[in-house]
Design brief:
With 336 residues, this protein is mainly α. The chain has 14 helices and five strands. Strand 4 (146-148), helix 9 (154-171) and strand 5 (179-181) form a beta-alpha-beta unit. The chain is globular. Bound molecules: tryptophan (TRP).
Length: 336
């Protein structure tokens, strides 16, 4: 008699910077396969974006571009729910409630908070600190089974799990326990100029990144000046420990072409980096070309995009409001 419930998956990306090759080869690349199997919710986390100061016009533009780029990458809005976080007011509301169930000590231990407060010493605001409670709300509103995130967000999902345990412990089974979902094949793409750091979408002016919409000439330039390594053998060999720059380029090339590391080593055997770096650039240009064309076409159709995000918000709100109603009742708020 069990009703067959499709498993639910949810994830978000902050529109705080342009999507990069790292966003694409990491999480985004895998999302389209998931919409076939799961009931998926993907959103632009604009509420989260303002924990760091944003230029309002840029934030608006990026939010819309990100939506167009999601669709261009294969997230068919007919098959999954795409929405903008601030359009579904239940996120902010549940975020507040969960703030009262997240402990100061827990929030203080979040490595992202520590990193970001070091980077934004002049703007260590309350939102930066309580960011994980809002993220827990994003997740728990939809009762998902899985939350696909990068390594750097795992700690936040763990915190959401602690909140579930605490909350359900007091009020009964209100929230489903979510699992972080780290794709096995998901590549972690590092900066092209600093292979010790993740390729970031927020660090403007970072010379080590390639965005999804960069011109082919820019992409080629970035790859030509990518850091390789300073050893004398100068050969294309996968050694993450000693040759992190080369390993990063090989990961990108492998993801773009489907070739294995072995095949790549053979292909560039005895050729040094002079041939390899532009080859990676060209492979990336070719991989991104159809996505860029599609994203531009969609971006030009504002009416279509509006239709997508309105319908998405409506679908999301239907589910989110059910959860929030239950929470309000459980904690003892008098119904209006
Ligand atoms: N914090 C995530 C990031 O910085 C974005 C995010 C916000 C998110 N809410 C979420 C991811 C909920 C997964 C689920 O990348």
């Amino acid at each position: 008699m069990e009703n067959e419930r499709k498993k639910v998956m949810l994830s978000g990306i902050k529109p705080s910077g342009d999507l990069t090759l790292g966003s694409y080869l990491g999480p985004l690349h895998h999302w389209p396969e998931m919409i076939e199997e799961y009931d998926c919710y993907y959103f632009m986390a604009d509420l989260h974006a303002i924990t760091v100061r944003q230029n309002p016009a840029d934030l608006r533009r990026r939010t819309l571009e990100q939506l167009a780029q999601y669709i261009a990458c294969g997230l068919d809005p007919e098959k999954c729910t795409l929405f903008i976080q601030s359009h579904v007011h239940q996120h902010a509301e549940l975020g507040w409630v969960l703030n009262c169930y997240a402990m100061f000590g827990e929030l203080s231990r979040m490595t992202q908070f520590k990193d970001k407060s070091a980077k934004n010493a002049d703007n260590i605001n309350g939102g930066l600190f309580t960011y994980p409670s809002l993220m827990a709300a994003d997740i728990l509103l939809y009762q998902p089974d899985f939350v696909p995130v990068g390594e750097d967000q795992k700690q936040h999902v763990e915190l959401a799990r602690n909140i579930v345990q605490r909350f359900n412990g007091v009020y009964g089974e209100v929230f489903r326990m979510p699992e972080p979902y780290i794709p096995k094949v998901g590549a972690r793409i590092m900066s092209l100029t600093n292979p010790a750091a993740k390729m970031s979408k927020s660090d403007n002016g970072d010379t080590g990144r390639v965005t999804l919409m960069d011109d082919p000439s820019v992409i080629m330039k970035q790859f030509k000046r990518a850091i390789t390594d300073s050893d004398t053998e100068r050969c294309v060999r996968y050694d993450k420990e000693n040759k992190p720059g080369v390993a990063n380029l090989m990961t990108i090339y492998s993801s773009a072409t489907g070739k294995s590391f072995d095949e790549i080593e053979k292909e560039f055997d005895g050729q040094g980096y002079g041939k390899f770096k532009p080859a990676v650039g060209e492979a990336v240009v070719e991989m991104l070309r159809p996505i860029q064309e599609e994203a531009k076409r969609i971006m030009a159709d504002k009416a279509y995009l509006e239709g997508v995000y309105r319908a998405g918000a409506e679908k999301a709100e239907y589910i989110a409001s059910k959860t929030l109603r239950k929470v309000y009742k459980k904690v003892g708020f008098l119904p209006r």
